[in-house]
Amino acid sequence: MEAEGPGGGARSLLTLYEISKILSGALNLEATLHDVLNVLGAYLDMRRGTIALASAESSDLSLVASIGLSLERAREGRGAYPLDVATRVHRTGMRVLVGNMWEDSRFTAYLEHGGVLESDKVAFVCVPIRAGESALGTLSVERWRDGPLDTTLDDDLRFLTMVANLVGQTVRLHRLVAADRRTLLADAARLEKRARAERAGRSQQERGPRFGEIVGRGPAMVAVLDKVRQVARTRAPVMLRGESGTGKEMIARALHKVSPRADKAFVGVNCAALPDTLLESELFGHDKGAFTGASGERKGRFEAADGGTLFLDEIGEISPTFQAKLLRVLQEGQFERLGSSKTRSVDVRIIAATNRNLEEAVSRGEFRADLYYRINVVTLVLPPLRERPEDIEPLARHFLERFNEENGDSLGFSDDAIALLSACAFPGNVRELENCVTRVATMVRGEVISAQDFSCREVGCLSATLGREIDGPTQAIGGLGAPTGVSNCGSCASGGGRPMPLSDDVMMGAGRSPNGAGAPLGTPPATPPPMAPPATPSASPASDDAAAGGVGAMDARHGDGGGVSGRLPERDRLVAAMEKSGWVQAKAARLLGLTPRQVGYALRRHDIPIKRL
User: Region (Disordered): which ranges (predicted)?
Assistant: First the structure.
């Protein structure tokens, strides 16, 4: 064959070079294959050319590129491309060379509707497209032939086979890249789905019916948490009421965490821990030179909590003077730093907490009514631990688990230890329970904490002693008062492990129990005995005048026992008890129902000399 012929060496090399350039820059596979057919049409004088590829999932062929005939016409209609011929080539891997398509009945309909006369001679060449051992599709070419069949078609067959191999490598590369891309997209979609699920899970955990950081799922706490979720979505100020140790700050943090302000700061300040001057600087900040030692400007808690939540703990302890200063910023959202005349604005949600009776403080003029109404918009009352005994066991186990994690231990509770804890009233609430668990876990020698390991079974429960020594309606600083109807711990009472009833004046004077004297928890309310009106407390809390109703009232309620309320007996009764006990203070204390320390104080108070027998 001549070098200048369609299959000649120079022209064939030039054609392969152009095709390789097209395939090397391929991005869109179908457009690239169409360009390949255009090059073949220019250099081989083709009538028509087609490329059919099998999908990666099946072996069925479909036309992806065509010249001389649109893809729509080639795929459908009576004059459609004879795909059965290409399918045979694809499946067998054998090349097909037809010198005159009119002589093959498989092409009759195709030629009749393709504008080809019966006198026209059109040759058909079809070769498989392969990549290694894989058959990917077919490449077919139709050429006009004027003379008799010669070796030109054989050269075309070999040339098209080389072109088909180049196309096969490109197709395989595209499919590998597409498969990797699909894998990456699937992985990205899976990761995004997992991330959405985790975000939804966190949101559900934060806003759903459970608060993971709060232990206790009794009816009382469930009711509180339901109100927390309801209140959190608004901007309304919240007042947390409850005894000391009930977890007011934890509830405040939970309320902030599930509110729309969760991504902003939560700032807390204990109003009772600072005097007015320091509290004003702490809340409002100060400028340089505002007072001695103010070497620079400092932002206050209001500015630090801008956009978030400010928790004012023990708000009932602030002075009336500072109450007026606080009222303005709560009403207007504006304030001035100490030493500055510049007015600053903040957007802060206020959560206040107190264990005081603010209503009584307002009636006595100790707390401003307008400030009370400003902060007491939504009130959440936290129940004391004695009103939710079902939470004692999970709380105790939680504190013990935390102790184990912090100290590398593996302690556990026995059944009798849980029973002992569940029988306690815990006037110090959750804080006292935590301290109790930490104390016994620190001192225990074995791996299991039993009832005998608690201090109330050894040297006595100091919290119970404090509860018994509270004098009448007086409460210890911080809100610790006598529990309702029983001592702190039933196991450390004087009745052999039974709950020790408190006196009427302790229970009723503190306003903590509607039951009668000696009524344990769960006893129906009884009509309390008449009480003498309380006298004005004197400067000495241990004096006889400080006891409500005097000694006579105490004797009427407690007979000769001296009373367990902590009130001092009369001088004659004290002397008689000392005489009867041989002037042994411990024995006299047991006769009078007092502690040896109280008896010693009473002897000094009445200036009674101690006889030495």
Answer: 508-567
